[in-house]
Specification:
The protein is α+β, with helices and mostly antiparallel strands. The chain folds into two domains: 5-265, 2-methylcitrate dehydratase PrpD; 270-387, 60s Ribosomal Protein L30, Chain: A (2-Layer Sandwich), CATH 3.30.1330. The chain contains 19 helices and six strands. It has helices at residues 5-15, 24-42, 48-60, 76-88, 104-118, 122-140, 144-149, 154-170, 175-186, 200-220, 235-240, 273-284, 301-307, 317-320, 324-332, 350-356, 400-415, 418-427, 434-445; strands at 66-67, 73-74, 294-299, 359-363, 372-378, 381-387. The strands form two sheets. A four-stranded mixed β-sheet has the order 4-3-5-6. A two-stranded antiparallel ribbon has the order 1-2. A hairpin with a 2-residue loop joins strand 5 (372-378) and strand 6. The chain is globular.
């Protein structure tokens, strides 16, 4: 007999969002996620992947009240598709590491699009987002590396379910229909790591947002899905981890997992960030790239699998974000590894490519999701930089000042003084004045 305990816990949690007491620090973290989401999405408005999806959505002429960041309005699922794709184009958005899911990209896209369509309050949007995040964190907790290692993109798996949860909150679904929304989101699971480094990766986030809204809307109408999908050794984990190396844990909603979210200071795959920090530390200690004879990197197995196989000479900016050698070479040359380092028109800088050839990768005990070590060999000897917790992760987290610097770097040149309005609006989300301010900036942008 299928254990329905997890299913019941999920349905009840989503249905209880409207009256749940949420601590101020949790709401503030949700606002930090929104600010990051706005920054990385607006910073990507020139990205071809975002433009193609937005143009397609506009061409569908679905009507609706949900705003597209690139202009126009659409039905909520379509707006979420366009805006969610845009938010992941730079690969600069946040990650809940135990699920290895870029949670805000799809969940905030779904929340804002459907929230506009149903005229939800800012408070209810915050509640919807927090609920979606906590659902992602429970269903995907501890499964992220297993899922990724087997070729699935956690954002396409767990981000869909979180988007469905947020949408169910905004539609006011009861526990039974909320569970159906999650079930219908789960049955649409998709997203392959083989697509990393292409336009398909940000599309995973947009499609997760779209499918989450679709799932909740269907559930609201009485549409049904499978039962027991979230049971340990049930329908979802058996599908994405077929060798049974792990399973969904018994779901417990004590605590707030959103407080363990990680933000990116660099516009590259999160798995490379510890080595980028190590490279920057070497630069600060006096390392000169021209002195390098060899660079050995000790990284985690997943970093090696996803980013360590590339040769350091990416053919596109998207590929560059997933090329460990290239990103570390950028950092060793003192570059910020920001969105500006991955722009079209694309060309490889000869000195960066030459240094990348000298970088070797191997796994070791100092290599984790948040940790790495770099050892450089020069005529004068060797020097090692070991990072245990990369910037942006819990224990070395980004605060509002850090976020302001990241946000300004992404949008200030384009928005000018509107950057201040947008940042303040996101930080004040929930009081009733934020959405009009955000919508006003969007209208001037387009």
């Amino acid at each position: 007999m299928v254990d329905m305990t997890n299913d019941a816990a999920l349905g009840a949690y989503v249905a209880g969002a409207a009256t749940r007491e949420i601590p101020a620090k949790v709401l503030d973290m949700a606002r930090l996620c929104l600010t990051d989401w706005l920054g990385v999405a607006l910073g990507a408005v020139d990205e071809p992947a975002g433009k193609i999806v937005a143009d397609l959505v506009c061409g569908w002429k679905t009507g609706g009240r949900a705003r597209l960041m690139l202009g126009g309005t659409a039905a909520a699922p379509m707006a979420a598709l366009a805006n969610g794709t845009l938010a992941h184009c730079l690969d600069f958005d946040d990650t809940y590491v135990p699920s290895i899911t870029h949670t805000s990209a799809p969940v905030w896209a779904a929340t804002l699009a459907l929230g506009e369509e149903v005229d939800a309050s800012e408070d209810m949007m915050l509640r919807a987002f927090v609920t979606g995040f906590e659902v992602v964190a429970r269903v995907g907790h501890g499964l992220g590396q297993l899922v990724t290692a087997r070729g699935w993109h956690g954002t396409g798996v767990f981000g869909r379910i979180g988007s469905g949860a947020a949408a169910a909150v905004l539609l006011g679904l009861d526990a039974d229909r909320a569970l159906m929304a999650l079930s219908l989101a789960a049955t649409q699971t998709s997203g392959l790591t083989a697509s990393f480094g292409t336009m398909a990766k940000p599309f995973h986030a947009g499609k997760a947002a779209m499918d989450g809204i679709l799932a909740a809307q269907l559930a609201a109408g009485g549409f049904t899905g499978g039962a027991g999908l979230f049971a340990p050794d049930g329908g979802l984990d058996n599908a994405v981890i077929q060798d049974k190396a792990g399973q969904i844990a018994p779901i417990d909603f004590s605590g707030w997992r959103i407080m363990d979210n990680s933000f990116k200071p660099y516009a590259a795959c999160h798995l490379i960030h510890p080595a980028i920090d190590a490279a920057h530390a070497l630069r600060q200690a006096g390392f000169r790239p021209e002195d390098a004879m060899a660079v050995q990197a000790e990284i985690g197995p997943l970093a090696l699998q996803v980013t360590g196989q590339a040769d350091g000479s990416p053919g596109t900016p998207l590929a560059g974000k997933f090329d460990f050698r290239y990103c570390v070479a950028l950092a060793l040359y003192g570059r910020d590894v920001s969105a500006a380092d991955f722009r079209e028109p694309w060309h490889l800088e000869p000195e960066i490519a030459e240094l990348a050839k000298k970088i070797s990768t191997a796994t070791g005990p100092r290599g984790t999701f948040a940790g790495a070590a770099l050892t450089v060999e020069t005529d004068a000897g060797s020097r090692t930089s070991h990072i245990t917790t990369a910037k942006g992760h819990p224990g070395n987290s980004m605060d509002w000042d850090d976020m302001r610097r990241k946000f300004d770097g992404l949008v200030r040149e384009r928005l000018g003084g509107d950057a201040d309005i947008l940042f303040s609006a996101a930080r004040g989300m929930g009081g009733g004045a934020a959405l009009p301010a955000i919508q006003s900036v969007f209208s001037r942008l387009t």
